[in-house]
Amino acid sequence: QVQLVESGGGLVQAGGSLRLACAASGSIFSFNAMGWYRQAPGQQRELVSSITKAGRTNYADSVKGRFTISRDNAKNTVYLQMNSLEPEDTAVYYCYAAVLLPPNNYWGQGTQVTISS
User: What is the secondary structure of 3-34 as a DSSP string?
Assistant: First the structure.
């Protein structure tokens, strides 16, 4: 059973930074892709960023230039460095891991990120 454990959320002022971490219970090489979604109150869950097994990255337009996703294969961990945070970034951030065979997504429990203005 795959387990994803997130950490690093919290409360910061606008303009500040946070780094989220997602530690997987097994080798992250087993995942085709990993990344982060977020869900604000009353909003749909949206993709923030992803990174493939090959290292290709993808970002939502709203976070480009501010967020950076990375992976540490030795630690089976994916990170999301978030800079220049805005109140609009306030949400619960969920880590996910995708496998292809069979197709399935695994989710972390979520970590709250709150940005004060």
Answer: -EEEE--EEEETT--EEEEEEESS-GGG-SEE
